[in-house]
Amino acid sequence: MASGDGGLLSASHIVEYPYRRSTGPVMGRFFAALRDRRFEGVKTARGRVLVPPTEYDPQTGEAADEMVPVGPGGVVTTWAWVSHPRAKHPLNHPFAWALIQLDGADTAMLHAVDTGVESAMQTGMRVTPRWRAQTVGSINDVACFEPEGTS
Amino acid sequence: MSEAESELVQSITTPLRLEYQYTAGVASTRFLRGMADGKILGQRCPQCEKVYVPPRGSCARCGVATDLEVQVPGTGTITTFCVVRIPSDSLDIDPPFVAAHILLDGADIPFFALIQECHFDEVRMGMRVEAVWVDAEDLGPTFESIRYFRPIDEPDAPFESYKEHL
Question: How close is the nearest chain B Cα to the Cα of A24, in Å?
């Protein structure tokens, strides 16, 4: 607590929850694939491919466990530009949060897209992942996506 | 499927961190400055005359401002308590230990504090306790100016004296 004499006391107050979450058999495969620099989705009984995968078809509640490869490229279906990235954001310069529908997937997944400038972002643009040098089995193994043909 | 592929990721860490700037407000600021002086300050409701420690600036029952400041002593009564047996990274105290609701003499609201200097098995409702403060040079505008409460050599308070504060 700190303030001048007589003023109201004020102090930083930090709450931290160090959660560890069990991934289960389906997300466990998804993260294991990321560690190998691949994307996998789950195919439901109705033939839809969900990425990120879920253990159940959200429309029917039926179990889904058939993993299929998707990506690595995909299409931006919608996006929002972040002019002032915050401390925990994946990039420390302006970038886009985007929903990316990987090739072969029927759903889109949230990730960052690095185009440098907002004017280079476009719905429908093709993007590819930029992998980190070290992968651990986390969504952050993908540093971000970038326009196809960038590197 | 290769061996690497077949090895599932079992868990991921998803830490959550919330950074707040907490401003104490007028009543809590008075209380915390009192802590730095080694005093426990409360406020009395002008209508129901209940004494709030720590004060919140208003009476939750009457909905009026509590601008009458009162000092209460560091002695009080354990109204209820629990024995904590689960360790926590954020506490530098080894379980089992006792966290108790303490009704300070002259106060009408109990608050949580640590009980030390007695075996956890000896703690009981109605037990009389006193505040143990940090050394004078370590006093500050924080509840941590009181290190803990310890038993005092007095007969237990009768249940009637604190039953409305449970």
Answer: 7
**Residues in contact with A63: Cβ distance below 8 Å, sequence separation at least 6, in sequence order:** A55, A56, A57
- Closest CA in chain B for residue A20: B13
Q: What string of pLDDT tens digits covers the 151 residues of chain A?
A: 555 556 899 999 999 888 999 999 999 999 999 999 999 999 999 999 999 999 999 999 999 989 999 999 999 999 999 999 998 899 999 999 999 999 999 999 999 999 999 999 999 999 999 999 999 999 999 999 999 987 6
C-alpha span between B89 and B95 (Å, rounded): 12
Determine the distance in angstroms separating the CA of A81 from the nearest CA of chain B, rounded to an integer: 23
- Angstrom CA distances, B105 to B43, B129, B133, stand at 14, 10, 17
> How is chain A split into domains, by residue range?
24-147
User: Contacts of residue B24 in chain A, CB cutoff 8 Å?
Assistant: 1, 8-11
Q: Show me where the domains of chain B are located.
A: 25-165
**B1 at A interface, C-beta within 8 A:** no
Q: Which tokens belong to B133? A: 């403060």
* Helix, strand or coil, per DSSP, at residue B134: coil
Nearest to A1 among B5, B18, B141 (CB): B141
Cβ–Cβ gap B11/A23 under 8 Å: yes
Inspect the interface and report whether the beta carbons of A28 and B8 lie closer than 8 Å: yes
